[in-house]
Design brief:
Layout (H helix, E strand, L loop, with lengths): L15 E5 L2 E8 L3 H4 L6 E7 L8 E6 H7 L1 E5 L1 H7 L10 H8 L1
């Protein structure tokens, strides 16, 4: 099965968005399937991240998936992301496009 999140997305169309305080991570790409990431503490996601330290701009690069999942709170995700990373999660999570309309 190919990785459905392997194709890099643009900053304004991420797979998911996580936040922690003033930090925002937009997930643009993953390198492994979610089931493989669970076995690898060094699994990486390509992200666009911003915080007070980036003065409103984005820094792009790889971040350990475990750090984002440990410290971040999922605030927006595509249905595919929710199915892969939060199976059975039935709370209403907006899509990234919906979230960005009110929080960009």
């Amino acid at each position: 099965m190919p990785n459905p999140f392997a194709k890099t997305r643009k900053i304004d169309n991420p797979h998911a968005i996580y936040t922690a305080g003033d930090i925002e991570w937009r997930i643009l790409k993953t390198y492994k399937l979610p089931k493989s990431e669970a076995k690898d503490p060094y699994a990486r996601w390509m992200v666009a991240a911003r915080s007070g330290a980036t003065f409103g701009g984005f820094d792009m690069g790889d971040t350990y998936a475990t750090e984002i999942k440990s410290y971040g709170r999922l605030v927006a995700a595509t249905p595919e992301w929710l199915e892969a990373y939060r199976p059975g999660f039935d709370a209403k999570i907006p899509t990234p496009a919906e979230w960005l309309k009110t929080n960009a």
